[in-house]
Design brief:
This protein is α+β, with helices and mostly antiparallel strands and 200 residues long. It folds into two domains: 128 residues, Impact, N-terminal domain (Ribosomal Protein S5, domain 2, 2-Layer Sandwich), CATH 3.30.230.30; 65 residues, Ribosomal protein S6/Translation elongation factor EF1B (Alpha-Beta Plaits, 2-Layer Sandwich). It contains five helices and eleven strands; from the N terminus they run E-E-E-H-E-E-H-E-H-E-E-H-E-E-H-E. It has a five-stranded antiparallel β-sheet, with helices on both faces. Helix 2 packs parallel to helix 3.
Length: 200
């Protein structure tokens, strides 16, 4: 894997899989935080109140250690893990997949369930465009308001992502700078007079 980039999705997707009367509807979402996950899951439960299970998996962050799986009442290991397996097989992060199940009256058994959740998640990822994004390093910039135009030009030119901006007499911008262009960006910013840079 290239350490300067990561793969994720930037829009939701949906796909459906049916097996012996049971309906599995998989939803993919770009994810920014655990709070974001809770909101999305709550909204889906509201949208599908009659569904018997809302199983999910997500992975957050670049280090890959922040993840969660849930079988939501299905036999242990038959739903959450197969869903996460699909996220990991495509080396994605900042992604949530929820599979909503409507029971069709026939028990599928453990192999059947694993296959159903895995297939539903896989189909949803097939219809959701995967994007490559640069790894960002966060910096805080402080500068005189007369420098706002050249600073913003550099930010725009290098595809930096502004997180916070405060334009007073003295301006403060917090932004994510693409790791693969970091030296170049810092060099250009340091060329401007009175721009203070702090890594955050």
């Amino acid at each position: 894997m290239n350490p300067d980039y990561y793969f994720t999705i930037d829009r939701p997707g949906m796909a459906e899989f049916k097996d012996r009367g049971s309906q599995f509807i998989a939803y993919t979402y770009p994810l920014v935080s655990i709070a974001d996950f809770k909101e999305k899951l709550a909204a889906l439960k509201k949208e599908h109140p009659k569904a018997v299970h809302h199983c999910f998996a997500y992975r957050l962050g670049l280090d890959g250690i922040q993840f969660r799986v849930s079988d939501d009442g299905e036999p242990s290991g038959t739903a959450g893990k197969p869903i996460l397996g699909q996220i990991d097989s495509k080396q994605l992060t900042d992604v949530l997949i929820v599979v909503v199940r409507y029971f069709g009256g026939t028990l599928l058994g453990v192999p059947g369930l694993i296959n159903a959740y895995k297939t539903a998640a896989s189909l949803a990822l097939q219809v959701t465009p995967i994007v490559q994004k640069p790894v960002l390093i966060n910096y805080r910039m402080e500068f005189d308001h007369t420098q706002i135009h050249p600073v913003m030009q550099i930010i725009k030119h290098f595809g930096c992502v502004i997180h916070k901006q405060d334009n007073q007499l003295f301006c403060v911008v917090e932004a994510g700078l693409p790791k693969n262009r970091l030296e170049e960006i810092l060099f250009r910013l340091n060329e401007l007079r009175s721009v203070e840079l702090t890594k955050c």
